[in-house]
Amino acid sequence: VGGTLAAVPRREETNSGGESERYAAIKSRLEAAGCPPFPNKNGSSDSDSDSDSDSDSSSSPQLQALSWLADEDERSVPTHDIPALKQRYALAVLYFATGGADGHWTESFSFLSPQHECEWNEEVEAYRYWPMWWWEAVKQMLLPDAPLFNKKGAMCRNDEGIVDHIWLAENNLTGTLPQEMGLLNGVRHLFLSSNKLEGQFPPSLGNLSQLEYLFFSFNDRMTGTVPSWIGTTESMKEVMLDGTPLEGTLPSSLASLPNLEVLDFGPGCHLNGTIPPFGAKGNSKLRLLSLDFCSFTGTAPSSIFTMADLEHLHLGGNHLTGTLPTNMGNATKLQTLTLGSARTPTNNLSGTIPPGISSLSELFFLDLTSNQISGTLPDSIGQLGNLQYLFLGDNKLEGSIPGTISELESLVFFSTAQSNLTGDLDVCGMPLLRHSEADCAGDDPQVTASAATSAAAGSCLTEGKVSLAALLSCHEASYEPEG
After folding, report:
1. H helices of 33-131, where?
2. Whole-number Å distance between alpha carbons of 359 and 357
3. Per residue in 367-404, pLDDT tens?
4. How far apart are CA 175 and CA 277, in angstroms?
5. Does the pLDDT of residue 21 top 90, yes or no?
6. Would you state the pLDDT for residue 465?
7. Cα 45–Cα 49–Cα 50 angle in degrees, nearest 5
8. pLDDT at 49 over 90
């Protein structure tokens, strides 16, 4: 499908509209294939009806793409090859509509070159923008079955010459996505994160019936609501729209997508309304559900905790009410669980921490901060052997700290600020916080803070058993987040 064909000279204009024979033929075939009517080059129109398309402008991306395809493209795609014309035209419109021809794109990736569109890509340094460990984490969490991409641009992972991957993330795309994107109905992966795109998603993207991965994070100039077509694209596996300020409600149809594994709208979304009952139909494959720091109201659906494959659940920073789901322990693959936040907005969940939480044996991050959770901290919390971060502050918890906390050998941060928990905490054998250490050897066990703390902080932790208040005051004084 690749290769460069002989250059084709610009064709003479032959008709009354100022168009070459090839231009007129391609225009006619694209219109027959569903493209809005184009005006003639001289400004007149063959259509008596008004058109809402941007192609009405003589300088529109559509006419720029058509002119290039007909009179400048050295590849000279045969005018009878409708699928090839549509694909090449649609990608050209994308290029013109998002600033490629104006020099805005960071890299052109061979767009508008004589090569086949499957060759409109270039190898890039796989870890140019993010370190290796970040890419590995993304691969594990989001794309476990896909290779780490070392190319960006348009790609074909098939033998038919059909573009099925578009990776133009972090490439300074501007403007709005054109309706012609809907002509690329073979696309399965669409990666346009971290650009400067504006406007709304074109409805024509609903024509991409094979779409599996929609990555559109951090396009903070986008507007509009969550497109309804996302919830009806049954092939969809992963949707990443975090940092893109869409408004309105979350379509309930998303909860019924049979193949959806990752859904991430937060932080930074402006969505409101209630959270759909993910897992209610028992067919969910979700591994990550992130809806934090939006404006959702209502309850945290208990059906979410019935999803057997769920690994990451982030619902903090909303306006959720009601009781803490008692079936939290059923989501046994959970690794991170965020139902609270130390910054506004905050949820207002009540109830008690269910003893069944001990079933979350893979959990390493638990944040229930700033809710109205009451009762005591269950002894079963000590069975979370992988737990590293435990945030329980600003709740109505009371009673004694269970001694089983000392069995959490992986725990590196534990916060109960602004709570009524009391008692001593056996710190011997625990790593404590990142900047503290415990020396439990000999007859006089010592707990010392790092050099980052004051001398007073270093002297307040001198016994194997210390008061929780002393532990927290020293730790909070010394804690400095890394990275």
Report:
1. 61-67, 82-97
2. 5
3. 999 999 999 999 999 999 999 999 998 999 998 888 88
4. 35
5. yes
6. 47
7. 85
8. no
Beta partners for 323? 350
Q: Is 3 helix (H, G, I), strand (E, B) or coil?
A: coil
Name the one residue in this structure whose structure tokens are 């959702």. Answer: 296
CA 194 to CA 216: how far, in whole Å?
7
Per-residue pLDDT reduced to its tens digit, 284-340: 899 999 999 999 999 999 999 999 999 999 999 999 999 999 999 999 999 999 999
- Sequence length of the chain is 483
Convert 363-395 to b/e letters by CB count within 10 Å (16 or more is b): bbbbbbbbbbbebebbebbbbbeebbbbbbbbb
- The span from the CA of 232 to the CA of 483, in Å, is 39
Three-point CA angle 285, 288, 290, nearest 5°: 135
Separation between Cα atoms, residue 221 and residue 248, nearest integer Å? 16
Q: Is the dihedral of CA 247, 249, 250, 253 positive or negative?
A: negative
From the CB of residue 211, how many other CB atoms can be counted at a distance below 10 Å? 24
Q: What is the pTM of this model?
A: 0.83
Residues 89-95, mean pLDDT to the nearest whole number: 98
Contact 353, 326 (CB under 8 A): no
What is the residue-wise DSSP string for 180-213? GGGG-TT--EEE--SS--EE---GGGGG-TT--E
What is the 8-class DSSP label of residue 303? G
| Six-digit token string for 447 | 């707990």
Tokens of 455: 């001398």
Collect all residues with Cβ–Cβ distance below 8 Å to 132 and sequence separation of at least 6: none
The secondary structure of residue 253, as a DSSP letter, is G
- Taking the C-alpha atoms of residue 479 and residue 5, their distance in angstroms, rounded to an integer, is 63
CA distance 124 to 468: 51
**DSSP secondary structure, 150-167, as one string:** -EEEEE--SSS----EEE
pLDDT over threshold 70, residue 94: yes
pLDDT value at residue 5: 43
pLDDT tens sequence across 341-351: 888 778 999 99
Evaluate the omega torsion of the peptide bond into residue 267 and state whether it is cis, within 30 degrees of 0. yes
Q: Which amino acid is at 292?
A: D
* Beta strands, E only, 294-392: 295-297, 312-314, 336-338, 365-367, 374-375, 389-391
Does residue 424 sit in helix, strand or coil? strand
